[in-house]
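S1.2 Input.
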Amino acid sequence: MAQAPAVSGPGWDLSQEYSGVDDPALQEDLQALQALLDQAAELNPQLQPADDAAVAAAQQIAKLRDSAAVLLANVSTFANCLLSVDAKHGGAQMLNGTLQGYRKQFGDVFEAWSQFIDGATAEQIESYLSDPDVAPSAFQVHHGRARSHEKLSLAEESLVNGLSQDGIHAWGRLYDQIAGSLQCEVLVGNETRSMGLAQTSGLLMSAQDSQRQAAWQAINQAWQAHEESCTAGINAIAGWRLEMCKQRSREQPVHFLDAPVHMNRIGRATLDTLLQVAADNKALSQRAAALQARAYGKSGFGPWDLRAPAPVLGGADSGAISFEQAVEVIASAYGEVHPDMAEFVRMMVRERWVEGTIGPNKAPGAHCTGFAKSRTPRVYMTYTGGQSDVITLAHELGHALHSWVMRDLPESQRSYGMSLAETASTFGETLVRDALLAQSTSAQQRLDILWEEMSALTAFMLNIPTRFEFERNLYTARQQRPLRVQELKDMMAEAWRAWYGDALAEPDEMFWASKLHFYISGLSFYNFPYLFGYLFSLGLYARRDANGQDFYPRYVALLRDTGRMTAEELAAKHLDVSLEEPVFWQQTVDALAKRVDAFEALLQEIETRNRGRK
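S1.3 Output.
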């Protein structure tokens, strides 16, 4: 009988920041935050009229804003970390509720400053940036002013900020609460077990077909019980954003893709080129997916197979990978680039900055976060010992490394677009896979690694565009009216078929409900940045050997520039390429074709060997 995963990762230590929600230090930070907000509010009247005194006031407010943002982010991270591990943590839920008020106040207080920055003349901005403490924010200021035509009046922006807390953000919080408390009735062997969403999702990596299918069915059945709530939520979130686009279109039309593209610090031309290259190479991606299905003796994968591990040759169980083994694998691979990268991995574990436990109320997925005061990262996941868990850990540690090499920069230069956020993470994945492949001594080991490569290729080149197409179609249709449950299911199924073709046996029509990314209220289209980061990092990775000993310092320099350049500027400076043209992207995909060829050759070798044994 199949067993639930017995391997687990460590729990993280948050006490370096706060001992708990009742820690006096936490309350002191909230009091300090309030004091900063009060000081900024007192300065706001000086922003009118827009003269030299207003510029001086704006400079003071900017410094207060940076300090306030650090405190608000620090406490918010703590609350979110607690809720990620235990969605039913009463103290953290109350703290999160308290923080809603601070977030609203933060938005209200600094809206006048934001309006001033967006509406100031070029001469005033030059004077504003002459302050040495403010000067590092130059890129952030100029990039933000590119969307100044979307600004509403100060009173309107304040109203939007206030209503959003119990509007769009309330729907996002509702989804999180449902996901955190969802119980799935899963058939494990001959026994039905009740377990949380994160635990059930871990079973999607089971080596047994029947177990994966049972887990997928249990997840979908659990979400089907909440499909009306999810329908209301996704319609409300999309409707809110579309109405905001309409309200912000007073000077010129605002499209629903404008905000996510701007947030990612790329242009629409780059996004269009990226997606077109993915579409042009759909046949290669579908071939990779079909080869994975073939490895399991199937004509097409079921949606429950998308996170399946490599088949076990000879029917033997390859066994789970302990967390300690995973850390050494990753540290060794990172260390091939530079010893500092290996030491960073070990430091993350030594400091207990990694959360990998298994729990009934844990949120699904994996992410990297960080504490703004100490500028230290934290990695979150549910570690169950699968090969894909090792790759996930390598991915999230890449995110952590990215923030770590930027920790000494000014606060205004440490925030980067999501597209570039995937650079170090996907680079880390590739490092680990290639290192493992080079060390492999058996067909099973080679299969395990090449399998992970194919899983990454199909996830980024097929799954991510599927999500994007669904979300784009959702917003287009939502402009007319709210969608019903069956319409969402049909739209989701259509997107699956459009990208996977015959490589997928059936679509996952409930994916619109089960995928957290569609319900993140703070941002939309949390999908294409993964495709961007995947291909961008592979293009960077391809230059590793050519740069030799110079690669690591150049790599760090690129990462440090991610908070003060657009993606196009970064690529031009560090890679000498244009992201608006298909050449760079296509060259990267062409290199992937060789990896697909290697996977097919290995399958043929295994199949030939198996025929010879019969």
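S1.4 Remarks. The chain has 25 helices and five strands.
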